Amino acid sequence: MNNLLLLILCFVAGILLRRFNRMPDNAPAALNSFVIHISLPALTLFYIHQLKLSDDVLLTGLMAWLVFGFSAGFFWLVGRALALPRATVGALILVGGLGNTSFFGLPMVEAYYGGSGLSTAIIADQLGSFFALSVLGITVAGIYSSGRPTPGEIFKRIIAFPPFIALIAAILLIPVEYADWFSVLLKRLGDTLAPLALLSVGLQLRMGHVAEHQRNLAIGLGFKLILAPLAIFLLYVQLLGTQGQAVQVTIFEAAMPPMITAAIVAVEHGLDPELSNLMVAVGLMVSFVTLTVWWFLMRGL
Questions:
Q1: What's the pTM?
Q2: Is residue 124 part of a domain?
Q3: Of the four listed, 92, 147, 273, 281, which is most buried by Cβ atoms within 10 Å?
Q4: Is residue 231 in some structural domain?
């Protein structure tokens, strides 16, 4: 609950600081840069190093990749049907395809499933969402950005993306025991991600733009909060026949609202910044209802 209160406080603080002109215009860009280059790599180095592989890891970690794949196909078709701008399609794929499985997801999993569900949630987040962001997210951002980079340029962006570098380093360092001071350092730097990211979203939020983006916003959140978890439910439960708390938490994480960091990447690549930030802000508020519904429906699994 404390983590949720922190998210709300920082989000509201960003709105108020913008409302009363207490932050410079370039503040969101500076905050986003710190998150991408410092906070997220530190968090990745800290959590990936602690992962313990098990039989449930594959399906749980694969969930985010499947959701992103569904997102790419779904929004590509929607974009063609509605003749949406490339930047809007890219924003919907990127932000609608990646869930906030960490800073919102972990406290929500703990609230609904207790501490026993956190190990599954961490796998869904670190090997799923953040890994997919580092590879698939950066690829889509490059493809749909205005520059139209070549495949070689996209590859360079992926391998130069700080969280991706941190992910590879963390995997290689799993056999190595961190010094206590280093673990504390990584944890404290990683803890800055949630407050700074929500502060940045609050600074950029313009609720007056909801009406302007209401159709695309409804489509994006409808996919992320309803269709994506439904697809994972049908695949994992109905088709594969999996049961138990691990699959419940995996589907619950699939139902999380859009990832804050995905919106930051979308904004940095010029992919419909207003829509990207609205999906995060509105998605957080709506998901309190939709997640409760998903938890209720999955109680018997």
A1: 0.80
A2: yes
A3: 92
A4: yes
